[in-house]
Recover the amino acids of this structure.
């Protein structure tokens, strides 16, 4: 059975819901808050809830934040490869979600930024696995070097999905180029796609440019409109989204990534997988919290009930 093998970072999210981000030097009172495992966990949860076996190959630590990480991985029945680092805690992220559902992040790095080549030697990847790489992991020098070398040793048939993350413009160019060359699918949001394509504000064109830098295809998320899909031998097309009342967009991209990977692992073509991922993201934004990916049954119900996709 195909598995999602993730080398992303799992950290703790300290989520605070506010009316608006205060000006520099200002202050505001949160309307609500929560502490939960997040980061790379959200993608794994999405794939797991859509029926995919999941392996976590990233690093984590020991301490109060690591306890939250370990408990969350166990609760979602994720196979954990690494034993964890004994001398450092896992990191955390303060996520500010404003009244428009936009998110602003500040992250403190912990054990997840210390992945090594020796750690990845513990990971046995199969031909039919889907390997998920995040730009958050590539932002750390140790992780970046280890992941690039490891990707070069993967079985040729193994599918690699790259989400370059909001940190895409801070990644080492040589690292990003190397991972793109091995990526079968590059999944980005609109901002990231524009940063990667540089000269093109048009997302359809940006998807083409990103696909050309990969060994496969690009999926560019365009909020409620859906996502643009570009790949070899395929015209660029918009896979439309679903009209919902969004309350929290935190984790929507992760839900999209995880369900996209699960659908691809079952043999869906990229457009069909993208539509399923759009449905998962649409459900996720109707719920508060980062790990709000829906189950297979919930996704199926939306797809069947909609009859066709709805932009808006």
């Amino acid at each position: 059975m195909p598995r999602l093998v993730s080398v992303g970072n799992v950290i703790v999210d300290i989520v605070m819901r506010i009316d608006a981000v205060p000006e520099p030097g200002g202050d505001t009172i949160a309307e609500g808050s929560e502490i939960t495992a997040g980061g790379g966990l959200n993608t794994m949860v999405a794939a797991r809830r859509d029926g995919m076996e999941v392996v976590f190959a990233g690093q984590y630590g020991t301490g109060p934040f690591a306890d939250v990480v370990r408990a969350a991985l166990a609760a979602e029945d994720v196979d954990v490869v690494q034993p964890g680092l004994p001398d450092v805690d896992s990191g955390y992220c303060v996520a500010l979600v404003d009244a428009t559902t936009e998110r602003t992040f500040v992250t403190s790095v912990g054990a997840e930024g210390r992945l090594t080549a020796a750690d990845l030697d513990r990971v046995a990847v199969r031909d039919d696995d889907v390997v998920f790489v995040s730009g958050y992991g590539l932002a750390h020098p140790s992780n970046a070097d280890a992941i690039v070398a490891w990707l070069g040793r993967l079985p040729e048939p193994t599918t690699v999905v790259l989400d370059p993350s909001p940190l895409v413009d801070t990644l080492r160019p040589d690292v990003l180029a190397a991972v793109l060359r091995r990526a079968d699918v590059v999944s980005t949001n609109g901002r990231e796609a524009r940063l990667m394509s540089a000269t093109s504000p048009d997302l359809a064109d940006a998807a083409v440019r990103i696909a050309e830098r990969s060994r496969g295809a690009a999926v560019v998320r365009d909020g409620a409109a859906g996502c643009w899909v570009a790949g070899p031998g395929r015209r660029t097309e918009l896979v439309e989204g679903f009209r919902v009342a969004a309350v929290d967009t935190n984790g929507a991209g992760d839900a999209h990534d995880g369900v996209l990977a699960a659908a691809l692992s079952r043999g869906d073509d990229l457009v069909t997988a993208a539509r399923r991922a759009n449905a998962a993201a649409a459900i996720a934004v109707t719920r508060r919290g980062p790990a709000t990916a829906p189950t297979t049954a919930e996704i199926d119900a939306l797809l069947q009930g909609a009859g066709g996709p709805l932009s808006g």
In short: The radius of gyration is 18 Å. The first strand starts at residue 3 and ends at 6.
